[in-house]
Amino acid sequence: MSLVRFTLEDGVADVRLNRPGKMNALSDDMFDALIAVGREIAADRRVRAVVVSGEGRAFCAGLDTSGFSRMAGVDGGESFPANAPRTHGVGNRGQHLSLLWRDLAAPVIAAVHGVAFGAGLQIALGADIRYVAADAKLAFLELRWGLIPDMNAFALLRELMRTDVARELVYSARIVDGAEAVAIGLATRVEADPRTAAFATARVLAQQSPDALASAKQLFNVAQDSDLASLAMMESVRQDMLVGTPNQVEAVKAAGEKRAPKFDVRSSS
Q1: Same domain, yes or no, for 91 and 197?
Q2: Is the pTM of this model over 0.70?
């Protein structure tokens, strides 16, 4: 059984964590499978939007609990690899997994139901948009295990919520439901069926210029760390790169002719 299912239809990538018997808890093999799927999507310019969800009763229950015993060396288990070595660009494997969705040119929507704990929540935070069920349960549980969130949670949270709210969640390991997650900025909105809603939005995004989407996403990705002058210049440069391109011309023609656009995905950047 594939630990991560990936299909592509009409430009929308369907990525599903597929370990339902374990509430999609992340094993080493599942980490590798998710990264492999991410790389496959990154290399496929036909992908215009991505939906990430979980099979079964949950989005993702976090790291497989056997991993905590490995970290602590409990019962003489195998020691856990050090986190500090940079093995994947600016981060390690876990950090790479949470930022993998940010690095894609296409926007990513996480559809969260059941639970999104620890590593699972941090994977969702890497998405551009998060739809959650009202009764979903989200939490950073790492401190219960004597650890801290370590998949770029601190970098991702700083653009989503007030620091005191984020600190309270991390320090206490408190579980919030979908409605509170939206109220505090952890999620985008509550949906009765997050996956269906995510695909509806993804289909809309797939009708936008892939070049413009990629540029807008890149600007959002750097906005938090950029000064005004740098961000304004980048905005202008990206706009100049778009004006008059085949896909921009097609967007104008399609809007004027009130028809669906036919973009050339080969020109996406």
Answers
A1: yes
A2: yes
